[in-house]
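can u do me a favor
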């Protein structure tokens, strides 16, 4: 049998909500090719991610990685903040 590569999935996305304690909602965008017309379409997926120190704000671009489940819907954690949102 061949060994399976256990690489940790890491994605980047924009924080769309930080109203929960130690949890943020991250929107990740990807391009999908339409099967018939061939046009690339934007698709978004929302993930709940663990933010240990409550450092992320809405509009920040963050890198999140897959980890053990923290709750029913939360199995991602913040790795780093790639870009801070401008203060309004």
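np, heres the sequence
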């Amino acid at each position: 049998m061949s060994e399976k590569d256990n690489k940790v999935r890491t994605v980047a996305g924009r924080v769309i909500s930080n109203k929960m304690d130690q949890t943020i909602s991250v929107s990740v965008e990807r391009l999908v090719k339409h099967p018939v017309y061939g046009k690339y379409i934007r698709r978004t997926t929302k993930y709940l991610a663990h933010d240990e120190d409550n450092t992320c704000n809405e509009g920040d671009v963050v890198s999140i990685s897959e980890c053990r489940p923290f709750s029913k819907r939360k199995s991602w954690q913040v790795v780093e903040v790639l870009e801070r949102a401008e203060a309004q």
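The chain has a mean pLDDT of 94. hope that helps!!
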